[in-house]
Amino acid sequence: MTANNDYNCFTVTIENRIAHVRLNRPDELNSMNKAFWLELPQCIRAIEVDSDARVIVISSTGKHFSAGMDLSVFSDPSAVPMNGDPGRMAENLRRVVLQLQDSLSSLERARIPVLVAIQGGCIGGALDLVCAADSRYCTRDAFFTIKETELGMTADVGTLQRLPKLMPQGLVRELAYTGRKFGADEAREQGLVNRVFDDAESMMESVMKIAADIAANSPLAVTGCKEMLNYSRDHTVADSLNYVATWQAGMFRPNDMMLTFQAKAQKQAAEYPDLFAVKSLFEG
């Protein structure tokens, strides 16, 4: 199945229940322009609603994964007015930042896992993006930086909130205060990325294999895992245990387990039903 590719910033293919989303503005270093921020949540939602994908892989084209925020986003006077009452300008800017945050949070809200494959630079807003994914993988030439500090502003769309959940607090503070680059080996040692690869080809081959392994499992079990992991990250152990017990009481059924046992007995791969499409009450 091939997804709708009417995007300015992405190409999307769906095959074997894996949705592959590629950032596709290599001449602009895949910078995150206004279209990017609008299209990303639309793209993620379309995959969930209109396809049979059970996992999303995000990669990019060109030398760098992404140079981060395109400054044209903030130079558009229709989006961010720079004249007028200071209070109203500030209220408007807050709304713009919340929209940018919500765009990247679409990766976290997606009920299916999101894997990111990173080559070259992952700068500023791009680091915000990958922090919102489930798992990250990179090439040996990859580097990361909280670039906003060097530009004279505080990162505001997710890195400072999510990165401390992935790496040691003291190190994150150093990286945020200094804006220094950190490379693939440090990212691996400190827990930001799962694995480092010699080149993009071997990285994509391995990440697609991981995606295939995910897609082969019960989609109900996998979405339950993501729900529980996200919840437990932000809550106490006691609250999280209570939540998973409630989830199991409502969601657990033996159907998929029976399919697993039958497939194992027959030495075959189990075939699980897809999750129902998530549609708004206001959609047709």
Helical stretch tally: 12
Largest sheet: 6 strands, mixed
CATH class of the largest domain: Alpha Beta
What is the end-to-end distance? 21 Å
Question: Mean pLDDT, as a whole number?
Answer: 93
- Name of the CATH homologous superfamily of the largest domain: 2-enoyl-CoA Hydratase, Chain A, domain 1
Write down the secondary-structure element order.
Answer: EEHEHHEEHEEHHHEHEHHHH
Question: Within the largest sheet, what's the order of strands?
Answer: 1-2-3-4-6-9
Poorly predicted tracts of residues: none
Counting DSSP E segments of at least 2 residues, the number of strands comes to 9
- What integer value in Å does the Rg equal? 20 Å
CATH architecture of the largest domain: Alpha-Beta Complex
Structural class, by secondary structure, is: alpha/beta
> Which descriptor suits the 3D outline?
globular
Number of domains: 2
The helix content is 40-55%
Strand content: 5-15%
CATH fold name of the largest domain? 2-enoyl-CoA Hydratase, Chain A, domain 1
Organism: Marinobacter xestospongiae
Family: Belongs to the enoyl-CoA hydratase/isomerase family.
Protein name: Crotonase/enoyl-CoA hydratase family protein
